[in-house]
Design goal:
Chain lengths: 422, 480
């Protein structure tokens, strides 16, 4: 029996009776765990990213015959050369900043990532990518399991989710990861002023240190209150961060990245970050080419946020300490549907960005021929078949970037040669 | 501010309502539990005049919506919260919220498709107030709050907001659209694992031609387009008909709308649907922190079929079940943000308070009404809680207590003999899960923290306000 996303946390809360580092340890831990360490930013493209609009096989005639209204014209793609199977590829025309990163060797594009019998459900698919477990039996996220493997006591700011809810990727058995959508509102309010306010805050802090016995759900809520009180002051330093280069104001994704850059620059101890940008479930009017088109807009949000982040980190000297890794729950159907959109598919593309990334094209593009025997496709040539197990990508990150043991964290050996993007 | 004294009725109103105003608590505790459940489920007998109270003195404030600007989704959010605070049909609002999470449809996508004005109408319009008589998505859910689930499914499949949300308006014969078909089975009825990808493709074909057209009244309405319907037979992996047949026969396109009715009939009869709903009801009404009681679920799933999908019978049985009223199940559900906010308003007070001031806090707690994050609804249970959302809850408690400062002090005055009498009074007004002695000691210590107990007006104002903030911000107050 698989664990639904609504069941997983219920098992997970039991462990929150375990306490984490007391506030007194914070500054030492921050130094020990935070200063000039390697940062990982996991970026979730919510809804199922259409890899064929992001990284376009612009010489494949089937790409154009199967997508008569939503193909990206060959003349407009940002060419990035050919992969090892000699398929010429181009980035979506709106990804101009990513193209510059590619040219500098800081962007790796890992094609056809997925797993066998890929789920076409948003929710099951996201859970599988989050837990690195296609049987969906693991309650905890793959990054959460990494956090659990850190030597205790673990700083409660070791992770930072820029979402309001804790994503399953970061769900650990005994490390509560703060959710900080906006550092400016991450503060404690009182109903009184002066000495009364101090007494209120002191009481809230002392109450939050209480650990109820044999009441795991209540303990879980206490752990969140406790971690909130313990992280307020350090997060407040991020709220005042002035970036070295501008982030677009009307782009919530970019603003989340701005806060993450602030946390890195301030050196508050965080090592893993999670950020998301949504809207990729393009069933209808996908329109990747017009300036007001849906997918064009998605690429704009993505490109502008990541470019601002890249430039800021570059100016701050943090590019070599940072790795951004993207994932999405599935790719999309190759042929467009009747609504000028695409339905749920299988394998997709993953992006890795950073100063120490060995940029380039990894893996091979699908051949989009409708031949049912086409080995790069599945589902009667309807969907892209995976070539690289997504866990091989995670293994590379865990072993080579985080310096941990991927076989223990992923519960198996998924390492793959030729995947040395970092 | 009710002074609570009847744990069973308190529990019933936390789960089947949004906590209790003083008048509400008095009414229901006089009924006894069986009578109270009957009063809750037979809400049609109670006049639905609560919307007319908006703007009247004695009620929580709603920012005026007609001061020179068009109504917005922010108005709709406040008006629904107003109902939750002041309705005399609390179970109808509670089930409306349950269905809003079950059929989770979001304004924000519609806004991008049809603009803010129409998106607001398709989500929230009341037929009696809309110039074209549009019934918005949530009004549909309210009409069917304890209605027939099969009929509700058919109405949802024809609902303009749903047709936009899951792209049914684009589902045509040449290229079937899978979005609604998949979620109908995965989320609305069977649950994952009870259907195949082929079933999704077949169900998409079933609903070809279930589209939208702009009527003479200027709004998009459901239309069945025979020319866009795929008239060929559709075969499923599960029975569609009572005789066990798995194939919806080929039929002339003109009568093709029956395909969708047949599929919905097959889906509601499928044993997985009743169990799927019963599990959700168990988590919503009975217990969210322990294992699911399979015997209870199977019993409710059987009742769902026996009672021909009439939710009034099912929910009534839920509330009368021994598992519901078992005191061990008190405070075993994590409060949703709107539940927390509305209960806090009922417990702490609302005079001079505006619901406009709840909207940003609710966003920060993770719940915007009319805007669930995706079609699976909100992530419930522990997922509501993170450091950021917990801070938002504590800070909301602080803001509301501060707003009610003088009223709180006046009401508390006769309970201020000692810090402990004040604490006892506040804990009888804001019910929490049982507090450990250490927590009670910290609350007492807070009341004594800044000087001797003098009962001066200033001290009472400060301390009752701070105490109400601390209690409503306790983890023990975040459960219902």
């Amino acid at each position: 029996m698989t664990v639904s996303r609504r069941q997983f946390l219920k098992g997970g809360v039991a462990a929150f009776t375990v306490s984490f580092a007391a506030p007194g340890f914070m500054s030492d831990l921050a130094l020990a765990q935070g200063a000039r360490v390697r940062n990982l930013v996991v970026l979730y493209l919510g809804g199922g990213n259409d890899a064929l609009s992001m990284l376009v096989p612009y010489n494949d005639p089937f790409y154009y015959s199967r997508r008569p209204t939503i193909a990206v014209p060959a003349g407009s793609v940002l060419q990035v050369g050919s992969d090892s199977s000699n398929v010429a590829l181009g980035l979506h025309p709106r990804l101009t900043g990513l193209r510059q990163m590619f040219d500098r060797g800081h962007l790796a594009l890992i094609q056809r990532t997925g797993y066998a019998n890929q789920s076409r459900s948003h929710f099951q698919g996201t859970d599988i990518w989050s837990t690195a477990d296609p049987t969906n039996r693991s309650p905890h996220g793959w990054v959460g399991r990494y956090l659990d493997a850190l030597p205790p006591p673990v700083d409660p700011l070791v992770g930072w989710s820029a979402t309001r809810e804790l994503p399953r990727v970061l769900l650990a058995s005994h490390v509560p990861v703060p959710a900080i959508p906006n550092p400016a509102t991450y503060a404690f309010a009182t109903s009184n002023a002066g000495a009364e306010a101090s007494a209120e805050r002191a009481a809230a802090l002392r109450i939050s240190s209480h650990v109820p016995v044999d009441r795991p759900s209540l303990s879980f809520v206490y752990a969140n209150a406790r971690a909130a009180m313990a992280t307020l002051d350090r997060v407040a330093t991020v709220a005042t961060y002035a970036p070295s280069s501008p982030y677009p104001n009307n782009n919530g994704f970019a603003q989340a990245l701005r806060a993450i850059a602030g946390a890195m620059v301030r050196g508050i101890g965080t090592r893993v970050f999670y950020v998301t940008t949504g809207g990729y479930d393009t069933h209808a009017a996908q329109n990747p080419t017009a300036a007001n088109g849906t997918y064009y807009g998605l690429m704009g949000t993505l490109n502008d946020g990541l470019t601002a982040f890249y430039n800021d980190l570059s100016n701050q000297g943090l590019l070599n300490d940072t790795l951004v890794l993207t994932f999405s729950e599935f790719g999309r159907r190759i042929s467009e549907n009747g609504s000028a959109g695409t339905d749920h598919g299988a394998a997709s593309v993953m992006l890795a960005i950073g100063g120490r990334v060995r940029g380039g094209l990894y893996g091979t593009a699908p051949n989009l021929s409708l031949d049912p025997a086409n080995p790069t496709l599945e589902n009667a040539a309807g969907d892209v078949r995976h070539e690289t197990d997504f866990r091989a990508v995670y293994a590379q990150v865990i072993d080579q970037w985080l310096g941990a043991d991927s076989t223990a964290i992923l519960n198996g050996d998924f390492r793959k040669s030729g995947l040395g993007f970092v | 501010m009710a002074l609570y004294s009847d744990p069973a009725t308190e529990h019933l109103l936390r789960r089947a309502g949004f906590g209790a105003r003083a008048d509400e608590f008095k009414t229901f505790s006089e009924f006894g539990i069986t009578g109270a459940v009957a009063h809750l489920v037979n809400y049609e007998r109670i006049p639905d005049d609560v919307d007319a109270r908006i703007g009247e003195p004695g009620y929580v404030g709603v920012a005026a919506r007609n001061n020179g600007r068009a109504p917005s989704i922010l108005d709709a959010r406040q008006r629904w919260l107003f109902r939750m605070v002041h309705t005399n049909r609390p179970l109808q609002e509670k089930m409306t919220l349950f269905w809003h999470n079950h059929f989770a449809t979001a304004y924000s996508k519609l806004q991008g498709q049809v603009g803010a004005d129409d998106a607001l109408r398709y989500m929230a319009a009341k037929p009696s107030e809309d110039p074209a008589g549009v019934r918005g998505h949530v009004e549909l859910l309210r009409d069917f709050a304890l209605g027939n689930f099969r009929d509700l499914l058919i109405e949802v499949a024809k609902d303009a907001a749903m047709l936009l949300w899951l792209d049914g308006y684009l589902n045509v014969r040449a290229r079937p659209q899978e979005n609604f078909a998949r979620e109908l089975m995965e989320l609305f009825t069977l649950g994952i694992g009870h259907y195949t990808e082929e079933d999704v493709y077949a169900a998409a074909r079933v609903f070809t031609g279930w589209n939208l057209a702009r009527g003479t009244n200027g709004v998009q309405q459901f239309i069945f387009r025979p020319a866009q319907h795929d008239p060929t037979a559709k075969t499923f992996t599960f029975p569609i008909y009572p005789d066990g047949s798995r194939t919806i026969p080929a039929r002339p396109a003109a009568g093709g709308m029956q395909d969708g009715i047949d599929l919905i009939d097959g889906l509601v009869r499928h044993p997985a649907t009743g169990r799927h709903l019963a599990r959700k009801l168990y988590r919503f009404f009975v217990n969210e922190t322990g294992p699911i009681n399979d015997g209870w679920v199977n019993g409710m799933a059987s009742l769902f079929i026996q009672r021909h999908f009439e939710m009034k019978h099912v929910v009534s049985e839920v509330l009368l079940s021994a598992e519901f009223s078992d005191p061990r199940n008190y405070f075993t559900r994590y409060a949703w943000p709107v539940e927390f906010v509305v209960r806090a308003i009922k417990d702490i007070g609302w005079t001079g308070y505006s619901l406009a001031d709840t909207l940003t806090p609710l966003t920060n707690m993770g719940q915007n009404l009319y805007d669930p994050p995706d079609v699976a609804g909100w992530e419930l249970g522990p997922s509501w809680f993170s450091t950021g959302s917990m801070l938002s809850r504590m800070n909301f408690a602080s803001a509301l207590a501060g707003n009610q400062r003088f009223r709180l002090a006046t009401a508390a005055q006769i309970h201020t003999q000692t810090p402990e009498t004040l604490l006892g009074y506040v804990l009888e007004s804001l019910r929490t899960a049982p507090l450990d002695k250490a927590v009670l000691a910290e609350l007492s210590a807070y009341l004594r923290a800044t000087g001797p107990w003098t009962r001066s007006a200033g001290q009472v104002q400060n301390k009752v306000t701070g105490l109400v903030h601390l209690v409503a911000g306790l983890p023990e107050y975040q459960f219902v």
